[in-house]
Structure formats: structure tokens, C-alpha cells
Amino acid sequence: MRRAFIIGLLSLCALVGFFPVESTGRTAEQSIPTLTFVRRKGEELVIRLQNPTTRPISYSGYSSNDPIYRLSRKTLKGWTYGSLGWCGTGLGTQSLSPGRSVFFKIKSPGSRDEIFRVGMNVSFFPTGSSDKRTDTIWTAPIKPSSE
User: Fold this and answer.
1) φ, ψ at 11 (rounded to 5°)
2) Distance between CA 58 and CA 97 in Å, rounded?
3) Which of 11, 39, 138, 143 could be cross-linked to 119 through a Cys-Cys bond (beta carbons 3.0 to 4.6 Å apart)?
4) How many CA atoms lie within 13 A of 53 on its CB side?
5) Whole-angstrom Cα distance, residue 139 to residue 120?
6) Coil, strand or helix: which one is 13?
7) In whole angstroms, what is the distance from residue 50 CA to residue 30 CA?
8) Per-residue pLDDT tens for 42-65?
9) Which is it for the CA torsion 14, 127, 35, 72, positive or negative?
10) How many CB atoms neighbour CB 28 within 10 A?
């Protein structure tokens, strides 16, 4: 009787969301694409876009490894956001399959003393959802000493 009660209680908790239950084995943090600073190579930065979801994601770019991105600089007043400033000629929708990554290079912005981050607009289906979502994802802040 006690075992049936515990199983019933755990099932009820899972139904109402007390415990994350996903058949994919992924955590909630893994259900959205990620953008990561990999390394600095001279005046170039290598960035990685990763798709940990179970469905393809899409983003704008000239090719899979030449995406549209934006920069945000940290100031005393908070984060400032620059304009995209891209030309539309040759621009298209790029797709990244589940479990895949793409690496791209960008020119290091401004002074090497600035803290900044790189952002991209991506469209994806969060794990367990049938609704497509478009969000701006960002790297963690990239510090001047980041190598």
C-alpha cells in the first residue's frame, strides 16, 4: 500500500511539474541553442553556434558559417546594443541540424579593453514544445583577457 502511494505521489508530482520529466534525457538548459566564445586568434574571434535540441534550428546568414550577428558592449550604464548593419544581398535562411554545431569567425570589435558579447537571432522548437520560438541568444561576456 505504501509503495503504491509513493508511486502515485511521484506520478502526480511529475504531472504538475515538480520534477523535470523529459523522454529525451535533456535538461531544460539544453533545450535551446547556445552561442559560445571559443578562442581569440589575433584580431579574430571564433564563435560556436550549437543546436542541442531535437529539431533543426534556423538563423539568417550568407552561409552556414557566415551568420548575421550583433554585438553588445558593456558600459558603466549597462549593456549597449549596436545595429546589425548588414546588406541583404545574398542573405538567406540557414539551418542547423539537431546535435550539430557550426563555427564562425568575427573581427574583434573596438578596443581590446572592452567587455562585449555576441548575439544571434535563432528560431527553434524548445524541447517538448510544438510552438516555434525566435529569440536572441548571447555568448557569455567576453573579457579582454579571454584567449
Assistant:
1) -65, -45
2) 9
3) 138
4) 24
5) 9
6) helix
7) 10
8) 888 999 999 998 889 999 999 999
9) negative
10) 11
Nearest by Cα to 104 from 31, 57, 39, 29: 39
Q: Is 130 exposed, middle or buried (0-12, 13-18, 19+ CB in 10 A)?
A: exposed
> Which amino acid is located at 71 in the chain?
L
| Selection from 111, 119, 116 nearest residue 136 by Cα | 119
Task: Of 13, 37, 22, give the one whose Cα is nearest residue 126.
Answer: 22
Q: What size, in residues, is the chain?
A: 147
Angstrom distances, CA of residue 29 to CA of 1, 6, 145: 37, 28, 27
pLDDT at 14 over 70: no
Q: Please tell me what DSSP assigns to residue 136.
A: E
What is the reported pLDDT for 85? 64
Report which of 121, 123, 115 is spatially closest to residue 140, judged by C-alpha positions: 115
Q: At residue 138, what is the residue type? A: W
Among 65, 59, 30, which residue's Cα sits nearest to residue 121?
A: 59
Encode pLDDT of 106-123 as tens digits. Answer: 988 766 678 899 999 999
At residue 108, the pLDDT reads 80
Grid coordinates in use for 131?
Answer: 510552438
